[in-house]
Design a protein that fits this description.
The chain is an alpha/beta fold and about 190 residues long. The protein is built from 8 helices and 8 strands. The chain binds zinc ion (2 copies).
């Protein structure tokens, strides 16, 4: 059993072509693969208006309520809805690094999503942010040189970024974390 998986998409990310119709909240909740499971659907696809309904369904299934935010244009939307944690696409632009400060000020965990896939400059990321080792993207870079210099600067979380039932695992990301000598930060306690 994995300790946690906080980066999972469900059918609420309707419009993301990688999500399949079987990837419902109910299905995810029934697969006993991680002790703490959080759903992080794309905020722009859930929509501010339906976010409360989404959060209610996630909570009713016993899961943590998250979201994935596509950079600074969605900052105010992210600030207007309640969740347990937030995952942020930090593109390499001033406003995105500033948005991380604003999200941290909300007092809940902020996870920087797959920085290697977005050219995020980790030197500019506040050290209070958690940095993700993402099973979908980690193998698409020279992860030793990208993450290696930062292993002492940040705390890290491992995420599946599952869009489909058979993506509900963290096999490659965990291998990388072990190779880098990272100890995963457990964000929530039961
Ligand atoms: Zn993403
Ligand atoms: Zn994602």
């Amino acid at each position: 059993m994995l300790p946690q998986d906080l980066h999972i998409h469900s059918t609420w990310s309707n419009g993301d072509a990688s999500v399949v119709s079987e990837q419902t909240i109910g299905f995810i909740a029934e697969v006993p693969y991680a002790r703490i499971i959080g759903i992080s659907d794309h905020l722009e696809l859930v929509g501010e208006d339906l976010f409360e309904e989404y959060a209610g369904e996630v909570r009713a299934a016993g899961l943590k309520v998250g979201m994935e935010i596509d950079g600074c244009p969605w900052l105010s939307a992210a600030q207007s809805v309640a969740a347990d944690y937030r995952i942020f696409h930090c593109y390499d632009r001033d406003a995105d690094y500033k948005a991380l400060d604003r999200l941290l000020a909300m007092g809940q965990p902020v996870i920087v999503a797959h920085p290697n896939a977005l050219d995020t400059n980790l030197d500019r990321v506040p050290p209070e942010c958690l940095v993700e080792i993402n099973n979908r993207y980690i193998w698409r870079c020279d992860w030793r040189s990208f993450y290696g210099p930062f292993v002492d600067r940040f705390q890290f979380v491992i995420g599946s970024d599952a869009h489909q039932p058979n993506w509900l695992n963290q096999t490659v990301a965990r291998h990388v974390a072990t190779e880098l000598g990272l100890r995963e930060k457990l964000v929530f306690r039961r």
